[in-house]
């Protein structure tokens, strides 16, 4: 069994979700290839070389891969697919956009968001906002999987010494044109891999009020998340949404402030180790999922918490 | 320009699913069902494009047993013009099979734009739109929170993990919706009455020449490990004490 992992990267380095995906791949086989498609992506390829379990890094470096676009990247992966028993990518917006397109080009189903590898053809995955866990078996000749990062410990980028093979497979995106990107820059840890996450909901009330959430997060060295309601109301950008249809997090400590605890929100954070809920409503469902609940007005409680940390 | 919208019947988003005692599947008997919220957003966007004069007709299509006609009717009540029902049995249809069926409808209908939800809230697959785009060799814009159609292109703003990205897709194209694209309108009673008179035609996989197969077998469905409610602390000091001394996370 030879596995292909599609690296998500920023040319200069691998995204952490790629390291979790490599870990899922290691449950399948020790013969792992990594595809790094990008532009000036030697550094990302060099990092992939060192990851444990990686035997070969396929580096496809060309300006057409500067911007990730499913249209041409899917064609590239399709060309490589025949040599592999499994193709894995992280279940991030990158992998979710790409992998079903690859699956349909090859003519196989794709299994989304796996949380465990039971055997080479059998996997577990959450369905219904994580309220049920399905065990599914794939009969396809090539198994296409996206991997939920929080379910697999990241591999170390050390110890490995894979070979690098330079590819020359340039596929053009003829019908997709990149216009622009608005990438949110932050000095805080990345939401999906942070040890501590502080999230705010509709109860925070405004964009200005969110400052107190950022202040608490900075005191704790935490990443900041939010509920859908907080994003919809424009308090914070979309990349902060935690939940069934946003990002999945599983930190050591998750602090939910002014969040009621809808099933869609719980789907994104219930694997956290310790959950703290701060809410003024004793009946809020979030308390049913919290290790420690504090009933009170966040505008009194959170500043006090900050001052005592 | 014609717009084709794929809508799916799913569990109502406010309902927590039950699991069958024998763990063979989820149990949907007597469960409240609804149009998948992302599909409703897709229908709303198509209707807005028609109201703006960009689109001329909005056609909705749904795949499933007879009950999915309800979701086609509710889309017609929102303002879609006509419905197509592809009848299958009660067994769920795989994502690739759905995409193959939709590809046939696209061949027949020749829409300028095909809209789907980004994700079904039951299977949580997030696959069908991307698969359909591949089968048709169309460009795709997934997780879209803003859509502008001009000069033969769909300019889409996508919600991605790092923020937002804007792509221009040459039409015909496939677009999948995210939550921020719009807020669907409420249907009024007269619209529901009017929807009953709109055309809804039935067809089948056989008529469309698509063989349904599913290479992914559902072996088991289990309850996840549930979090249990912990303790309510009465002060910030008590909270800090617990976090420092009982959990070691601080
Ligand atoms: C298709 C679909 C997908 C969805 N996906 C997601 C998702 O991925 N993530 C997600 O989060 N949601 C998602 N939702 C939305 C979800 O159903 C809820 O509507 C949302 O999570 C509610 O956000 P909230 O808890 O911030 O707001 P609310 O439910 O309004 O709760 C606000 C809370 O703040 C408390 N509060 C108010 N003022 C204060 C104060 N001063 N101090 C302390 N507490 C206060 C209130 O008591 C209340 O409990 C989705 C919904 C749908 C239909
Ligand atoms: N049975 C179906 N009938 C019509 N559309 C569907 C069906 N299944 C999936 N879709 C479409 O595909 C989208 C994404 O679904 P999924 O890939 O299952 O998460 C949905 O929001 C619908 O637009």
Mean pLDDT of chain A: 97
Helix content of chain B: 25-40%
Question: Strand share of the residues of chain B?
Answer: 25-35%
Low-confidence stretches of chain A: none
Q: Summarize model confidence as the mean pLDDT of chain B.
A: 97
Number of helices of chain A: 8
List the strand order in the largest sheet of chain B.
11-10-9-12-8-1-6-7-13
Order of helices and strands of chain B: EEEEEHEHEHEHEEEEHEHEEH
What's the overall geometry of chain A? globular
Low-confidence stretches of chain B: none
Structural description of this entry:
The complex is a heterodimer of chains A (309) and B (250). Chain A is an alpha/beta fold. Chain A has eight helices and 16 strands. Chain A has helices at 16-26, 42-50, 70-81, 93-106, 211-220, 228-232, 263-266, 298-308, and strands at 3-6, 32-38, 54-61, 86-90, 110-114, 116-119, 122-127, 132-138, 143-147, 163-166, 176-183, 196-200, 223-226, 253-257, 274-279, 292-295. In chain A, the strands form three sheets. Chain A has a seven-stranded parallel β-sheet, sandwiched between helices. The relative contact order of chain A is 0.12. The mean pLDDT of chain A is 97. Chain B is an alpha/beta fold and 250 residues long. Helices cover 29% and strands 32% of the residues of chain B. Chain B contains seven helices and 15 strands. Classes of the chains: A alpha/beta (309), B alpha/beta (250). The structure holds flavin-adenine dinucleotide (FAD) and adenosine monophosphate. Adenosine monophosphate binds next to helix 1, strand 6, helix 3, strand 8 and helix 4 of chain B.
């Amino acid at each position: 069994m030879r596995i292909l992992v599609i690296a998500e990267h920023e040319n200069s380095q691998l995204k952490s979700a790629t390291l979790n995906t490599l870990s899922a791949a290691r449950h399948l086989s020790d013969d792992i290839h990594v595809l790094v498609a990008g532009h000036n992506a030697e550094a990302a390829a060099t990092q992939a070389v060192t990851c444990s379990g990686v035997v070969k890094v396929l580096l496809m470096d060309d300006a057409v891969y500067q911007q990730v676009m499913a249209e041409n990247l899917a064609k590239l992966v399709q060309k490589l697919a025949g040599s592999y028993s499994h193709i894995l990518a992280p279940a991030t917006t990158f992998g979710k956009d790409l992998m079903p397109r690859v699956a349909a080009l090859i003519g196989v189903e794709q299994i989304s968001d796996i949380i465990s590898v039971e055997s080479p053809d059998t996997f577990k995955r959450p369905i219904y906002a994580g309220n049920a866990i399905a065990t599914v078996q794939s009969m396809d000749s090539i198994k296409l999987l996206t991997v939920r990062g929080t379910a697999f410990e990241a591999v170390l980028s050390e110890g490995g010494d894979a070979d690098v093979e330079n590819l020359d497979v340039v596929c053009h995106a003829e019908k997709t044109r990149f216009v622009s990107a608005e990438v949110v820059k932050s000095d805080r840890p990345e939401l999906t891999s942070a040890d501590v996450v502080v999230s705010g909901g509709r109860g925070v009330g405004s964009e200005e009020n969110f400052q107190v959430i950022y202040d608490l997060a900075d005191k704790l060295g935490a990443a900041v998340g939010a509920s859908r309601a907080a994003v919809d109301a424009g308090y914070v950008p979309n990349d902060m949404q935690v939940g069934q249809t946003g990002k999945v997090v599983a930190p050591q400590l998750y602090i939910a402030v002014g969040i009621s605890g809808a099933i869609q929100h719980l789907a994104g954070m219930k694997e956290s180790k310790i959950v703290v809920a701060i809410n003024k409503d004793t009946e809020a469902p979030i308390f049913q999922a919290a290790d420690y609940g504090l009933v009170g007005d966040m505008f009194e409680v959170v500043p006090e918490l900050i001052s005592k940390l | 320009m014609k717009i084709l919208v794929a809508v799916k019947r799913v569990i109502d988003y406010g309902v927590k699913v039950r699991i069958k005692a024998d763990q063979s599947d989820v149990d949907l008997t007597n469960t409240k069902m609804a149009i998948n919220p992302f599909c409703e957003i897709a229908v709303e966007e198509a209707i807005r494009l028609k109201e703006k004069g960009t689109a001329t007709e909005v056609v909705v299509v749904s795949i499933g047993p007879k009950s999915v006609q309800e979701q086609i009717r509710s889309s017609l009540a929102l303002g879609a013009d006509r419905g197509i029902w592809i009848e299958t049995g009660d067994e769920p249809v795989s994502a690739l099979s759905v995409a193959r069926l939709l590809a046939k409808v696209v061949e027949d209908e020749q829409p300028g734009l095909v809209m789907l939800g980004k994700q079904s809230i039951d299977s949580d697959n997030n696959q069908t739109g991307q698969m359909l785009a591949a089968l048709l060799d169309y460009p795709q814009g997934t997780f879209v929170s803003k859509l502008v159609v001009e000069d033969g292109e769909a300019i889409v703003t996508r919600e991605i993990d790092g923020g937002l990205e804007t792509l221009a897709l040459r039409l015909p194209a496939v677009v999948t919706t995210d939550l921020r694209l719009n807020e669907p309108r409420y249907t009024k009673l007269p619209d529901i009455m009017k929807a009953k008179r709109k055309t809804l035609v039935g067809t089948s996989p056989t008529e469309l020449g698509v063989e349904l197969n599913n290479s992914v077998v559902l072996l088991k469905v289990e309850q996840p490990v549930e979090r249990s409610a912990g303790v309510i602390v009465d002060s910030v000091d008590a909270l800090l004490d617990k976090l420092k001394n009982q959990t070691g996370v601080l």
